[in-house]
Amino acid sequence: MIRMKSNRVTYILAIASITALCFGYLNVEKVCAEFQVMRVAVPATHVNVNVHSHPRPHATACRRIYVTGFEAIRGVGHGTISVIASNTVLGSPINVGQDAVGIAYNPHNYDMYVVDDTGGTVSMIDGDRGTVVGSPINVGVGAHAIAYSPDNNDMYVTNEGDGTVSVIDSLHNTVAGSPIKVGYNDNYPIDIAYNPDNHYMYVTMGNNTVIAINPSSNTVVGSPIKVAQLGYPFGINAIAYDPDNKDMYVSIDDYRTFEDPSGTYDGTVSVIDSFHNTVVGSPINVGQFPVGIAYSPHSKDMYVVNNKDGTVSVINPSSNTVIGSPIRVGNNPDYVAGDYPDSYEMYVTNRGDGTVSMINSTSNSVVGSPIRVGNTPGENPVGIAYCSGP
Q1: pLDDT (tens digit per residue) in 103-129
Q2: Is residue 289 part of a domain?
Q3: Residue 199 vs residues 107, 262, 276: alpha-carbon distances, Å
Q4: Residue 27's domain spans which residues?
């Protein structure tokens, strides 16, 4: 607690009054915007008090699903973001970059961060207003996935083309420090996810390993965790955290799925014990060519998207076994995200038919009709994330 002399009580009262304005008692955006950078002036013998509110105060919570997509128009890539609320697309797609792929929500500033693979940039979208904020941030070559760390409120971006992870300071929306070197040549970073239990960022790598980054020092910790046989025919993809058993779940495909149409080569999911950073148990067989994976707080299950056979497998983390039959969604699905606590649905991007499917996590069945996203039927939806608001 900061103690101040009685003749400074007026300063405390002023802070309390403006705080009330900024945090929902009144919608006074101008006052809040000025307040975020205000420094209370006191004599040098006292403590300077910096109070930071949200950079752009919001009157409402966003509660929307954001979907990245891209299409080629006359040989030039165009990235877009579609916004879904109440299972309906809102307005026209938002234009961002050339090849919008990864996306993540930052609950600190309520912005969505979108990765442009071709341009090597990250764009920011005001999650509540659905408008682009500021200029794109230059990161690394072949930027792909992105995740948020609540420890430092920074965004972490995997750069497949140069084997690095870039760190974005979300307070100033600038790159912080030098890129973190994690790979080389064919050993490139792919997906990334945060583990709130040990506060590490976990990165899937092209050599079928997973590495951990400590956000407090932005350095790699420990040795790479081997999750699959090195090299052909296996390839590592996405990673997600399960808060119930504190483990990380990693999807692994089998390239023979595409080379031998007559064969059935199921993909797998490996489980990493994040306390010891070692793989536990045997790989879990799912569908063909698993890509995206996400946890449902409602059902407490992991949902795995199988790109080749157009299904979603459901894993019960308490037994690490697949439950029920694969859920049929659209063509060539890629990634999945939930909108908990607003509903019990998981949303799946279907790259092959330009739609998003909805799965009810109570019944584990598809509900409603697929939602068409993007500008044209030929657009390819890829990444997906939920803006939960304050």
Answers
A1: 999 999 999 999 999 999 999 999 888
A2: no
A3: 17, 44, 14
A4: 1-57
The verdict on residue 188 lying in a domain is no
Count up the domains in the chain and report the number. Answer: 1
**Amino acid at the residue 304:** V
Compute the Cα dihedral for 340, 66, 347, 370 and give only its sign: positive
> Does 113 map to a domain?
no
What are 221-280's pLDDT values in tens digits?
A: 999 999 987 666 788 999 999 999 999 999 999 878 777 777 778 899 999 999 999 999
Instruction: Classify residue 163: in a domain, yes or no.
Output: no
